[in-house]
## 1
Amino acid sequence: MNKNEIKVTEFVKNASPELYSASIAETGLTNIGKITWNNALESSYEFVTEENREYFLDYFLSFGAWEKEEIDSIDELNALFIQELSATIREHEGYSEEELEKYMEEGIISSCLYHPFQTVDREYYFYIGG
């Protein structure tokens, strides 16, 4: 495992990703973005540390949606990651292993989330680029 591969098994198995990633269409709430953002900020899951902060910062800056000053804190990067991870988990729901592999390979769904059937240690990992 390298520093760009974040072990996320506990989150995938125990968290409720819809708390961190949901839409107005799903919930009917016009402020769902603020709700899911606050949930992510207040989450007990901690992925971003001082040691790996730069990897997360580079990953999210590559999206082109933020300036460095907007997302430079560990708490903000962690919340962004929780939302990104949650959205990816939800995107992968309902597919078989074969479908996941095929759709990830074809670029139909995100290939950043590695499932236990794809890893040597049978854990979940999220690849943050680099």
Note: The first strand starts at residue 5 and ends at 7.
## 2
Amino acid sequence: MKSISQQVQEKKKLDEMKNLIQNLNLLNKTSTSVNNNSSDHIMFSSVPVKYFVINNALNNDIYNKLNLEYPTLKNITFLDTCHLKNKLDPQSAIMLHSNSLCQLDTRKVNIQNLKDSILSKNWKTFLEYHTSNDFIDHIRNIFYNKFPEMKSSNSTESSTNLNISFNLCYHLPIFSEYLDRDHIILDEKVAFFGIYLMRTSDDTSKGGNLEIYFQDKIFLNITYQSNCLLVLKNLNSDELKENKKIKIKFAKRNLTNYSQRFITFTITH
């Protein structure tokens, strides 16, 4: 049986690892631009869609732990390609190209059953919260508090009617002819979409900014950086019927030996 001291320490650790949006006290601050060099910088906007961006979303201690323990490209590539082939056979791995996307999809893998050498305990704790209804409620409440008009719309449905998927991602290095990635297009099933940038400190690659489009026109460009979170509220059903779309894409990178690291999460109806 664990001692009271051990139980207290474990609860403290869980509380620390829980929240991707640590700086909630800053959510009352607003700005008109994303200053990538500032610390604890928050930006809200409702034009052309509702979204917010947070620099230094996690405090440094927690970010550094997750950064150091981010699953290796080798492990994520193995899990991703083996899932595609539906068997745990290293020989089944698909051919990978420059800028290929490799990801650990929490819907397809039981993260608690993975060895700690593949996914650390800190990451398991982090993902346990960020795939929960509590996190869904947290995201919705941020938007409802900032944009009260949303409370009168259909988006107030219970979090129990919503689902969340979380992906730990890599774009492979650019080592040959560039493979341009397709846009991520938010369809009618998506309520919220988030992307969290985790650039390594030694990454000297050029390009790869995060670009957000509305009606095929870019309205937001975020430098590929560390510890930066973007969350978008998708369009309503009427707007989607008018063929309006939100698209997300990473800009082209130059030749580089560095991979691109980021996390995506999608909250769906």
Note: The first strand starts at residue 42 and ends at 45.
## 3
Amino acid sequence: MSQRPTKEGIAEGVTNPTEMLAQLSEQFNVIYSAAYYDLIPDNVFHSRYSYPGALPNTWVIENTVLAKYWNISYERPSGDNYIGLPTPSTTHTFTAYTKRAFSYPWGGVRPDSLPNIDTYRGSLWLYGYEPGSGLKWGLTGWVLTWSGSAASGLYARAGDTVRNMNAYLPTDYDQAGSNHTYQIKLNRNTVEYYINQVPVAYAIKTPTVRGNTFTAIAGPPYEIFQTIHPDTTVTPAFMEIEGTLSRINLDPRFFRVLNGDPTPPRVFNLYQTATTTLFVGSVIAAGTLTSHPVPVFGYPSKKLSFMASEQGTLSVESMSQSGNWREYDTIGITQDTLKTYSIEEDVVLIRVVYTPNTYPCTISEAEVVLR
């Protein structure tokens, strides 16, 4: 193998296995981990620090060395590894961007804990993807903000659109050693948000001249909202700390991002609308049963599978740009017989409504496969 500079491959004389692995991972574009930081920290990140200037409403922005702001020691407990200022500051912003940009990135962080949202007023923590500073439409990620009001808390953000996610924030998020994972997958047509590997929100990228065309749909099991910003799907990852917050306890091994699939295959179990109760196993004693919506925008193949203990009619509905649910098709269901159905047209959201001919009726199968 030909010799390459230290920033890009294994340099001459490097024999440490950990450093060799880090440099090889860079070379073959397999995975990107902040564990590199104790090896070649400033080959990985651009970092900057800003603070109020001498004149009113001005800020001083300085490029800085990441190693000054990321405390790393594998001999200490995870909570003693942190990114941020080593001592509290009155007002500041610290930002670190990866030097590499990622295509349709899939990344996440697992901090030891997050700061309590009732403690730090006027502060902000950001993690996600942004192609440049100040481009509000290009920011996609998790935002934890402390405003001292009902607006404080965890948000899923896509451009200028945000969705409050406090209902999904783990109750022990601020306790040392809680170690919750916050992940984001940026796709061609959607953005997926996960907490502890469980999907909790979907942002649908449907830019129109009318702006957002339907009201956000509340969960559980997950939130659905629209974003109209023209984001780039090749972007660096970043993390930012603002205000009086001094640091985030984050072991560098638990900041990761890699290239992803623009339209990753997905399987959705159907849930009763706005609940965590699965369709499968549900008993309809009277009337109908309606599912929580499934985001299907941009997938060429959309296949529904359904089975029930009683004969009936399955209505497939799609959300129109008027913000209304419209019947897409109706399907006859035979007792205890699996029915598969392909949705051929381009739609944004779908849901199903089942009306059995006799009661009670038990749902045996209910899922949507996207690819």
Note: The longest strand covers residues 361-370.
